[in-house]
Amino acid sequence: MKRIFIAALAAAAISLSAAAVLVSAGPAAAASLVRVTNFGANPSNLNMYIYVPDRVAARPALLVAMHYCGGSASAVANGYFKDYETAADQYGYVIVFPEATRSGNCFDVYSSQALRRGGGSDPVGIISMVDYAKSRYNVDPSRVYASGVSSGAMMTNVMLADYPDVFAAGSAFMGVPAGCFATTGGSTWNSQCANGQVSKTAQQWGDLARSMDPGYTGARPRMQLWHGTVDATLNYNNFGEELKQWTNVSGVSQTAVQTDAPKSGWTRTRYGNNSLTPPVEGISVAGVGHSLPQTGMIAYAISFLGLNTGGGGGPTTPPPTGEPTTPPPAGGSCTASITPGTVWGDRYNTSVTVTGSTTWTVVVGITAPQRVSTTWSGTFSWSGGGNTMTVKPNGSGNTFGFTTMTNGNSGARPRITSCTAG
Question: May I ask which residue range the UniProt record assigns to the signal sequence (predicted)?
Answer without folding.
Answer: 1-30
